[in-house]
Design a protein that fits this description.
The protein is α/β, with parallel strands linked by helices. It has ten helices and eleven strands. It is elongated and about 100 Å long. Keywords: DNA-binding, Transcription, Transcription regulation.
Length: 306
């Protein structure tokens, strides 16, 4: 049984006339008769019966017609959707990003991308999570692109293609009444003297913080760990400790005191991730190229961080 024969069956069921159906389909009557016989032989039941000079559907034929029409409609819709995905100006993009990226960079990139007339028909699905969880979804084909830290989970790195996008500036966050709040800038050694609210191992920032303190030759006094940025800010605000945080554009400056970090290792690289050797639709490729070009022009070449 093949799809072409099923379409013949639907047309014959519509006309209930061999000659008319064959003419509409542009085939000979013997070819149409062969196609219907092939379906009936496979099913083991008659789909049509003679009624004078015409034919009509049997009860089996009426039942089968409903399923065939439904199946062909689904196949047609699937084909239309694939065609849409392959249209560089009409596709759909599933993008994942970490929590801090959603405050400014992702809205900026998509807003600028949509200003291009040829991109107006492209739609997006958004997913926000930790780098670890986003990478799992990327490898499971639930996402097309991820904008996050570099993944560090063993067994995943070789399956991911990562391109540097921008650098995120890191700052110190201290309670407003803290002694360090009076300084214009602090070092990691200054921060290491106090209890620290630290990003947990589930966060893509954890490895970067560990590397920063290791480079500075000091060990942080970790008082508690958290995944989410504003949880860390909350505990700093209420005096539980100090923290190293990425630039948070939406952070209310009255909540905590944010200070520059003197150490040279005060940046966090952000990457665009995709699966290695994985087909990307034209719309996804177009967006990937746009954000790489945009970030190079407006951030990297101007030595600007997010």
């Amino acid at each position: 049984m093949n799809i072409r024969h099923l379409r013949f069956f639907v047309e014959l069921a519509k006309t209930e006339h061999m000659a008319k159906a064959a003419e509409t389909l542009g085939i000979s009557q013997p070819s149409l008769s062969y196609a219907i016989s092939s379906i009936e032989n496979e099913l083991g039941v008659p789909l049509f019966e003679k009624e004078g000079r015409n034919i009509r559907l049997t009860n089996y034929g009426k039942i089968y017609l409903k399923y065939v029409k439904s199946s062909l409609d689904e196949l047609d819709r699937g084909g239309e959707f694939i065609s849409e995905l392959l249209d560089v100006n009409r596709g759909h993009i599933r993008i994942g990003f970490t929590f801090t990226m959603g405050q400014d960079l992702i809205p900026e990139l998509i807003s600028q991308f949509r200003k291009e007339d040829s991109s107006a028909g492209i739609t997006f699905d958004y997913s926000q999570d930790t780098t670890e969880e986003l990478v799992k979804r990327l490898l499971n084909d639930d996402l097309d692109l991820v904008i996050s830290s570099m993944p560090t989970t063993p067994g995943e790195i070789e399956k991911i293609s990562a391109a540097h996008l921008v650098d995120q500036e890191m700052f110190a966050a201290v309670p407003n009444s803290h002694p360090l709040a009076q300084k214009s800038a602090v070092s990691l050694a200054d921060l290491a003297k106090y209890p620290m609210i630290y990003y947990s191992k589930q966060s893509g920032l954890r490895q970067r913080l560990d590397d920063m303190f290791q480079s500075a030759g000091v060990t942080p006094q970790i008082a508690m760990e958290a995944v989410e940025d504003h949880t860390i800010i909350g505990f700093v605000h209420w005096g539980f400790g100090v923290a190293v945080i990425p630039h948070l554009p939406q952070l209310d400056p009255r909540v905590v005191t944010v200070l520059p970090i003197k150490d040279e290792v005060n940046t966090h690289p952000i990457y665009v991730l995709k699966k290695v050797d994985h087909f990307l639709t034209p719309a996804v490729t177009k967006f990937e190229q746009f954000i790489s070009s945009y970030c190079h022009k407006h951030y990297i070449s101007e030595d600007k961080m997010v």
